Amino acid sequence: MEREKEGLKQLGKKTTYENDYNPALLEKFSNKHDNDYFIKFNCPEFTSLCPITGQPDFATIYISYIPDKYCVESKSLKLYLFSFRNHGDFHEDCVNKIMKDLINLLNPRYIEVWGKFMPRGGLSIDPYANYGIKGTKYEEMANYRMLNHDLNPEKIDNR
Questions:
Q1: Could you list the residue range(s) of the whole structural domain that residue 75 is in?
Q2: In a domain, 106, yes or no
Q3: Into how many domains does the chain fold?
Q4: Residue 72 located in a structural domain
Q5: What's the half-sphere exposure (Cβ side, CA atoms, 13 Å) at 100?
Q6: pLDDT digits over 97-137, tens only?
Q7: Where in the sequence numbering do the catalytic residues fall?
Q8: Residue 131 maps to which CATH number?
Q9: 3-state secondary structure string, the chain?
Q10: Does the residue 117 lie in any domain?
């Protein structure tokens, strides 16, 4: 087990929370599999602040990716997502930052991030961003999923 935790700073330690957005919280570990497979995270308690009013925005964030050499460590991901709590950014910016930070950390074969934000003023915003490695089948997959990501919208039970 110690070998598994090698290089990970957060796992097994007392949790401390950041006061603002901090991508340095993200940690990775080696992927032991060379086949394609999806890893999906659902964060139903994501919170950020409106950059104009300072009011809280609540969302479920869905992160799905096909790892290459690395996987994100889940506790570090939780702490990273929690770091948005006092951060002011538009919904679209939060989703794109999350995706780009994970790309920088992992260089996944494919990744998508979807934010399902609670309505404010009678309007909900659901930004979706994805990426596949250029010049590969994963780029083709990203293009296809971008064009078809909302053809069969799921029922959202938390709003």
A1: 18-148
A2: yes
A3: 1
A4: yes
A5: 6
A6: 999 999 999 999 999 999 999 998 888 899 999 999 999 99
A7: 50, 57
A8: 3.30.1130.10
A9: CHHHHCCCCCCCCCCCCCCCCCHHHCCEEECCCCCCCCEEEEEEEEEEECCCCCCEEEEEEEEEEECCCEEECHHHHHHHHHCCCCCECCHHHHHHHHHHHHHHHHCCCEEEEEEEECCECCECCCCEEEEECCCCHHHHHHHHHHHHCCCCCCCCCCC
A10: yes
